[in-house]
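input
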Amino acid sequence: MRIGPFELAAPLALAPMAGVTDRPFRLLCRRLGAGLAASEMVTSDVRLWHTPKSQRRMDHAGEPEPRVVQIAGGEPAMMADAARRNVDLGAQIIDINMGCPAKKVCNRAAGSALLRDEPLVAAILAAVVRAVQVPVTLKLRTGWDAASRNGPRVARLAAELGVQALAVHGRTRADRYQGAAEYATIRAIKDAVRIPVFANGDIDSGAKARAVLEESGADAVMIGRAAQGRPWIFREVRHFLTTGRELPPPARAEVRDIMLAHLDQLYAFYGEHAGVRVARKHLGWYRDAALPAHQSQRDDTLAVTSADALFREMRVAESAAVQLALARAWLEAAVGDAPAAGEHEEPEPGSGSPWRDRPRPRAMVA
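output
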């Protein structure tokens, strides 16, 4: 599928998620099969762009095309200005956030709160489309609540004003993330427009992706929470959509390499102090999403108990070297870490991460 001049490598997108889809995670998901990955939402208030958080959210160094920046706000002129400035900084697609259900966003008449004011929606979309020469896309929900599922009307308005693709979360703002996503409204939206539509909500496997595409009529799927701790979901979904067969889960050595490389990238991107703290939530997601399948293959109560203790230590580690050493020991205890037949060994010391090459804490040296 295409968005403006860009042909996507796969009909799969990583959903923008505040506090999650930073540059290291976007790069990881793109490498593992996502055809598109938008930034965390950037405020349209340029007076706040000097903060470290905003500076990092606008950092796209080394990202493959197309580079997508999502902007959030409720004032047309400010949104247009933010779009222009982000294009000047390298954005190749501007995505407008009308889907975030967070109170701190909705209370500022932004995110999904905009769905209650269709004239303001029109003013924002028109201003942003006029302001830039790159494609403009829109992320929205099906409506404000069950009594006002106005997604099809907003979608038609967007298409008429020049928006080139839509991503629709199959819940209202009132639903937040509760209950099951519904795809009938996404079908109504797709029937109402001729631009590409991404279906979003509760997609956690290749089989579910195919079912959602069939039910919604959408052109592509967008995956959010299911990618946390499981960034290889994109290649699994891509394989299923192409072949109709499930791809085996990654071998334990690959899980190890992906996770440790991800930690290295977080330390490099945020700096050691902040990177260690950001890494903690990702480690929790890897534990919850990636490791149970491997742990279920072990009949070793002592190893599982040891893994739990190591995980608790890892979550409070204060240095990158200690956190990495604990992460490696945790993986050994949780799933076993000897490479399986055909799997590659870890690089020799000196050839990999500066954090990984540091001496391990004494307690971790066996």
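quick obs: Residues 276 and 319 are 7 Å apart (CA to CA).
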